[in-house]
Amino acid sequence: MAGDRPVCVQRPALLGLGAALLYHCWSSVRSQIPDPELLPTDPPKKPDPVTSETVVFWGLRLWQVIGIFSMFVLAIIITLCCIFKCRIPRTKKEIEARSAQRQAAKTYANTLETVPPLNELTEIPGSIPDAPAVQTVSEQIQAQSDASSQLPVVREEEEHAAPLSLPETG
């Protein structure tokens, strides 16, 4: 039976040569396949132009956001002007009146600095300095209330020890 089949010794060598040839062809074909990352792509889509009707956020359009922001800024400016009493005078008459008011305030402040203290004003010129000072009305009332009605002092121990008695109504 050994004579029935021809023995081919070159077959493994041909398979190895075929595999090498197939590998060479495959590598040359593979180098010609373009990389998908490097392929030319469509240019990026241009964003929509910004108009007054463009929705910015929370479903509000651009003109609504600008209006809300403007009102907020205006409210802050008005509040600050009211707090600090900032007002731009409109006429020459108002400017002159404001200037006269400032001048009057300065002269009044200067005259207050020259006024003697209250205890010097209550002294009578030519009187004896050892005489008792005249009491004011508030001092007289306070002295009378201290002398006439003094409230009893209740200590905390006495307060807790004494039972409360309610008046009977009948």
One letter per element, helices H and strands E, the order comes to HEEHHHHH
Mean pLDDT: 75
What is the percent of helical residues?
Answer: 40-55%
- Morphology call: elongated
Strand order of the largest sheet: 1-2
Q: Report the end-to-end length measured between terminal Cα atoms.
A: 144 Å
If you compute it from the alpha carbons, what radius of gyration comes out, rounded to the nearest whole angstrom? 54 Å
What is the structural class?
mainly alpha
The proportion of strand residues reads under 5%
Word description of this protein:
It is a single chain. A two-stranded antiparallel sheet has the order 1-2. The protein is mainly α. It contains six helices and two strands. The model has no long low-confidence stretch (mean pLDDT 75).
Protein topology:
Blueprint: H1 11-32, E1 55-57, E2 60-61, H2 62-83, H3 92-114, H4 118-121, H5 137-148, H6 156-161
Antiparallel strand pairs: 1-2
